[in-house]
Amino acid sequence: MAKSQQTFSKKEKEKKKLQKRKEKQLKKEERKANATDGTLENMMAYVDEFGNITDTPPDPTQKKKEVKASSIEIGVPKQEEEDLSTERRGRVAFFNDSKGYGFINQDGSQDRFFVHVNGLKEPIQEGDRVRFSLEKGPKGMNAIEVTKV
């Protein structure tokens, strides 16, 4: 007598596939039953004065604020020019002699500036108090004319 070609695991997989199809069909029918009409008014979204998205239209009786088009800035705001010629003071936070660069923390602020061995007037080490000027580099401000205090 011949043995059946279907194994137990094949039968289980078929049952699971059928069950998933039934669940999917039920969900589809439930969505159709609970669906609201797809009119344009139901799909509209509004932005309130704080930038939040809401489904209620704005109140037309509310006072509107006039904005001049010239006052709108697009992009990054312009930075004020720093006086680079003034001498600053700080402490060497990190300096690697073998690679020839480091960083200086400015006194009285959170500013940290890159320093290269070419910008030194005398050798420095970590922890030294220094006096320096600034110049604009390709990636930000660089400390130059660095001397120990």
TrEMBL record:
GO cellular component: cytosol
GO molecular function terms attached to this record: DNA binding
Biased composition regions of type Basic residues, renumbered to the chain: 13-25
Name of the molecule in the record: Cold-shock DNA-binding protein family
Keyword terms: DNA-binding
Location of region: Disordered: 1-87
Domain of life: Bacteria
Record domain CSD: where: 87-148
High-level lineage: Bacteria, Pseudomonadati, Bacteroidota, Cytophagia, Cytophagales
Alphabetical list of PANTHER family matching this protein: COLD SHOCK DOMAIN CONTAINING PROTEINS (PTHR11544)
